[in-house]
Amino acid sequence: MKRIVVIGGGTGTYTVLSAIKHIENIDITAIVSSADSGGSTGVLRDEFGKLPVGDFRQCLVALSEDGNGNNILRRLFEYRFSKGGPGLEGHNFGNLLITALTEILGSEEEAFRKASRILNIQGRVFPITFDDIQLIAQYENGSVAFGESMIDEPESSHDGTMRISRLWVQPKAKIFDKSKEAISEADYIIMGPGDLYTSLLANIVVDGVSDAIKKSHAKNYIYT
Asked: Which residues of the chain have pLDDT under 70?
């Protein structure tokens, strides 16, 4: 049984997990960024002060068991409201459900565990940290973008690009102990595919992550 850890966030991680879950004799742990701040996730995060749930939800759906009994649950978790005004339109049902579970159970960790059971996933999904963080990027010209949804590489009037010179999270955050343990025990670590800054490095800049990867004896495959 080979232990595989996938680190990232968003559609790229969803795609990888959807493919590798069919490989025999592997144990999968998905570790997702805690810095997402856009769309439905961003609104719920602002309103409830909880961890972003969008990337976590996508990983749950990707790892959920195939079969007629689970298809309706997967569709529910992926359903996005197209009506309902500013209070509901654009929200994803799975995001709302995980947020509600957090309120009911009083713990984000318990809510994630319960959602995993509801979808009967093949593996585990952990956040990179349970700390409430925002991703911050500083560009070459000194300007700063606060929040994952605001970070981009805009055009510059000189060479066509304005590169990000520094990336960090605020406040300082510590890697979730179960994520650290999964990395240390991994046989393979897959990073990406995804945006370099907001999906991949958003995990690496959390305290303890780079050290955990360096100390791991896993073979590392990086996709960008």
From this structure: 38, 40-42, 45-50, 67-70, 85, 153-161, 220-224
Tell me how far apart the alpha carbons of residues 207 and 52 are, in angstroms, rounded to a whole number. Answer: 19
The span from the CA of 34 to the CA of 125, in Å, is 12
Question: Which residues are CB-contacts of 178 (< 8 A; sequence separation ≥ 6)?
Answer: 124, 126
pLDDT of residue 157: 38
* Total domains in the fold of the chain: 1
**Helix, strand, or coil (residue 154):** coil
Separation between Cα atoms, residue 116 and residue 30, nearest integer Å? 12
- Cα–Cα distance, 191 to 212 (Å, whole number): 14
User: How far is Cα of residue 5 from the mean position of the Cα atoms in its chain?
Assistant: 13
Q: Which segments of the chain does DSSP mark as H helices, in order?
A: 11-20, 39-48, 54-63, 68-78, 93-105, 108-119, 177-185, 202-204, 209-215
Name the β-bridge partners of 165.
none
CATH for 165: 3.40.50.10680
What radius of gyration do the chain's Cα atoms show? 17
Residue-range definition of the domain harbouring residue 108: 2-222
